[in-house]
Backbone:
C-alpha cells in the first residue's frame, strides 16, 4: 500500500512523497494519521535548514494522533479503531540511558520526524520496540482528538518541569508567549505556582497567555526585562526559556534569585552560543537545566493530565496534507498559535 506524505529535502524545500509501506512487524502497529501538529522544531528545519541529526529526505511531524489501522499478531492491548497518540522518541530500552529511566536520551534512539518518517503523512508505521516500550497511548474518553494531537507538547513541557521541580508558591518567569508558554502556564497552575509572568513580542499571543492564567504580561518590545527587574525588585524563583533567544536566556539567568533555576527548554538553532558570567553564576548558586523531548513515562502521564487542561484551545488553524507547505507559512503568522495538518 502506498503512503502519501510530504518530506523535507532542505531549507524551504518540502515535496510530496509516496512510498510503499513495509510489512508490519509481529509486534508493530500501523496508524492512520488523523492530525499532526507543526512544531517549532519542524519550522526551524524548514526555514533555517535541517540540523545534522536529520536524515534527508525526512517526513517531519512528531505531534501525532490517529486511529489504529492494523497491529501485528502479538499485540494484545490495541485493536483496529483505537484512537491513540504517539510519543516522539523510539527508545531501545536496553542502553545505559534507558536503564536510568532517561529513554529520551537513548543511545540508540530513533526520533519520529527526524531519522524515521513522521506524521505529515497518511500513515505512520511503528516498530515493535516502540509498542513494547509503551510509546503509544490511548486517548481517554472526553479528550478530543485535536487536544490529543498535542500530547507530545504537553509531555515535553512536563518533562522539562521535572528537571527544575517547581514548588507550590513559586514565582515563575516564562520567556515566550507561544503554545509552549501557554502549556507551561497550565501545568504550573496545576502545580500551585503563586505568580506567573510571561514575556513576548506579540500582543495577540500575550493576551492569550493572560487567558490561560498568566498574572503579568510584559511586551519586551516596550519593556526592557533587565531594567524592569532592577526597578521592580523582580527576582523569580524559576525562569523558563520558551523562545530560542540566547540573549534572553542570559538575562533570565541574571535576574533569577540566588539559588533559583533556569530551564533552557526552547530548541536553539545548531551552533547557538552565549557568554556566561561564571562568577555570578557560581557565587549565587544558580542552576541551569536543559530539556529535550520526553520519556515514555512522561508521555503516558501527560495523557492522564489531558482531561484537566485545555490543549485544544491552542489550535488556530487546520490544513489538509496536500497543503503542508501552506501550513508552515501559516505558522509564521503572529496571530496563529498552533497549526495542525489533517491528512
Residues:
Amino acid at each position: 500500500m502506498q503512503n502519501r506524505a510530504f518530506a523535507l529535502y532542505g531549507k524551504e524545500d518540502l515535496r510530496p512523497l509516496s512510498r510503499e509501506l513495509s510489512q508490519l512487524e509481529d509486534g508493530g502497529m500501523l496508524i492512520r494519521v488523523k492530525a499532526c501538529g507543526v512544531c517549532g522544531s519542524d519550522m526551524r528545519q524548514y526555514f533555517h535548514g535541517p540540523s545534522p541529526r536529520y536524515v534527508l529526505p525526512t517526513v517531519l511531524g512528531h505531534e501525532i494522533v490517529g486511529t489504529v489501522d492494523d497491529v501485528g499478531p502479538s499485540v494484545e492491548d490495541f485493536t483496529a479503531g483505537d484512537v491513540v497518540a504517539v510519543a516522539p522518541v523510539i527508545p531501545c530500552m536496553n542502553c545505559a540511558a534507558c536503564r536510568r529511566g532517561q529513554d529520551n536520551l537513548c543511545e540508540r534512539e530513533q526520533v519520529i520526524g527526524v531519522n524515521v518518517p513522521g506524521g505529515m503523512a497518511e500513515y505512520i508505521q511503528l516498530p515493535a520496540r516502540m509498542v513494547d516500550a509503551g510509546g503509544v497511548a490511548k486517548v481517554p474518553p472526553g479528550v478530543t482528538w485535536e487536544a490529543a494531537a498535542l500530547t507530545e507538547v504537553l509531555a515535553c513541557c512536563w518533562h522539562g518541569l521535572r528537571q527544575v521541580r517547581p514548588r507550590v508558591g513559586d514565582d515563575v518567569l516564562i520567556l515566550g508567549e507561544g503554545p509552549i508558554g501557554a502549556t507551561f502556564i497550565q501545568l504550573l497552575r496545576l502545580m500551585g505556582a503563586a505568580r506567573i509572568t510571561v514575556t513576548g513580542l506579540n500582543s495577540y499571543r500575550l493576551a492569550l497567555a493572560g487567558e490561560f492564567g498568566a498574572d503579568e504580561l510584559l511586551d519586551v518590545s516596550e519593556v526592557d526585562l533587565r531594567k524592569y527587574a532592577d526597578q521592580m525588585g523582580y527576582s523569580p524563583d524559576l525562569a523558563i526559556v520558551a523562545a530560542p533567544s540566547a540573549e534572553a536566556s542570559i538575562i533570565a539567568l541574571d535576574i533569577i534569585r540566588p539559588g533559583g533555576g533556569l530551564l533552557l527548554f526552547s530548541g536553539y538553532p545548531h551552533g547557538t552560543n552565549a557568554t556566561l558570567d561564571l562568577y555570578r553564576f557560581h557565587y549565587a548558586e544558580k542552576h541551569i537545566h536543559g530539556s529535550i523531548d520526553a520519556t515514555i513515562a512522561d508521555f503516558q502521564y501527560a495523557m492522564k493530565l489531558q482531561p484537566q487542561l485545555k490543549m485544544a484551545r491552542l489550535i488556530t488553524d487546520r490544513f489538509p496534507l496536500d497543503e503542508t507547505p501552506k501550513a508552515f507559512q501559516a505558522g509564521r503568522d503572529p496571530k496563529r498559535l498552533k497549526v495542525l495538518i489533517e491528512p
Remarks:
- The radius of gyration is 20 Å.
